[in-house]
Amino acid sequence: MLNETYPYYLASEPVWANTDLAVADKYTGKVAARVARADPSAIERGITAAAEAFDACRNLPSYARAAVLNHAVRRIMERHEEIARVLAVEAGKPIKDARGEVTRGIDTFRIAAEEATRMYGEFVPLDISPRAEGYQGVWKRVPVGPCSFISPFNFPVNLAAHKIAPAIAAGCPWVLKPASYTPIGALMLGEILAETDWPKGGFSILPCSRDGAGLFTTDDRLKALSFTGSPEVGWALKARAGKKKVTLELGGNAACIVDRDTDQEFAAARIILGAFYQSGQSCISVQRVIVHEDIYDEFKTRLAAEAAKLKAGNPLDEDTFLGPLITEDDARRIESWVSEAVERGAHVICGGRRNGPFYDATFVENVPDDVPLSCREAFGPVATLEPFRSFAAACERVNNSVYGLQAGVFTKNIDSAFYAFGELEVGGVVINDVPSFRVDSMPYGGVKDSGLGREGVRFAIEDMTEIRLMVLNRVGRSPR
To answer: Distance between CA 210 and CA 229 in Å, rounded?
Structure first.
């Protein structure tokens, strides 16, 4: 399933430089493969190659950029099961979730192939006063230049694709640092892209240490940085990024409101999925559930019963729902956060037990606002429950957070839906589903500590391009 060793990709070519990065099977804890790790000189060469490839990339016709992306679509489809099984091993992702991620990666490249031929501009009438009579304007989008990408461990293929595919569509060369825990999915994308006519030197995929990744942020030849990861790291990178454009996807502690008029069976099923799929290791995992007091006890009982049915085990087993967390230390962190909340008066409704890198699907109530389980991003299979009396108060509870990525609202009241849309301080409001819902074409991103800018292919392209205006003076000219 996995190869014994993998190269990194430097200037579009595989380089078997070393076997310094050991990638663990997250279920067994044993080394599953070894990957070449890039040193600072390799990163420097990758950036140099991207800068030298910029003219070739930006001048590649849109049909040729679309062809590169469509090749990726075909090859990922052909290798669908192979890639999914790699994700199950390197990320500990249950195989059904892994297949879902690969399918989403296909969607992301397909959308980018379409958008590659849709980089429209506008005609701008400038004769708004006598002094501008005869002047016309036309603007278009042009690629910003070489781009730098840093992707996280939880979606090794699709979150890399959300950076790679828009860059190719826009005509930008790029360098990517995948997460050290899960580099192989991105390297498999590199293997596929090396088969295409994307200009030589136009991409590098370089697993490296965090210390070795400084050039991804500080090198002035890189004109845009897109980072997905923790707020602490993301904002620190922005402070060091200089003049380049920066997009940050930084996660949160997503809340979900359940109003009294909702279909409880449907809402409970969706919340179970949203809170616990891939063991809660998602930026938009449901972490706070705010339920109308009239149905709180009944809904709490329903959630606990459904959570108890979830099977933990080997990610490669078809009936596994809960895989291991990315490290045992992360499971210990969740354990300590729950213990701290209980010491402060919280009550564990269900779950609350750790077994090595596994942690039970857990709901906790009466959690104080100032403990990490409530106010920080858990990134694990645990969610808090609390009742509300008025819908406005529930929205205030959602906003009582330094984060603002997405929120979910279950309600049959259209006024409540639009009230939430107007009042919730988040990047996206999902009505009658969980905040964990995402389609890869939609604008996706957060406010407050959850980030800056938007992903979703079309919107990422905007961040990887600039508007260039031409002003044309036609005063006194007549056709020949």
So the answer is: 12
* Residue burial 53-79, b: 16+ Cβ < 10 Å; e: rest: bbeebbebeeeebbbbbbbbbebbeee
Whole-number pLDDT of residue 209: 87
What's the confidence (pLDDT) of residue 478?
56
Q: Which residues are catalytic?
A: 249, 283
Delimit the domains of the chain by residue range: 5-250+450-468, 255-431
Tokens found for residue 58: 């930006």
Q: Cα(393)–Cα(395) distance, rounded to whole angstroms?
A: 5
pLDDT (mean) for 68-89:
98
Tally Cβ neighbours within 10 Å of residue 232. Answer: 10
pLDDT of 447 reads: 98
Nearest to 166, CA basis, from 461, 463, 465: 461
pLDDT level of residue 211 (50, 70, 90 thresholds): confident
Q: Under CATH, domain 255-431 is a member of which superfamily?
A: Aldehyde Dehydrogenase; Chain A, domain 2 (3.40.309.10)
**What whole-number percentage of the chain has pLDDT above 90?**
97
Its CATH class, for the domain covering 5-250+450-468, is: alpha beta
The interaxial angle of helices 184-193 and 62-78, nearest 10 deg, is 130
Q: What global pTM score does this model have?
A: 0.96
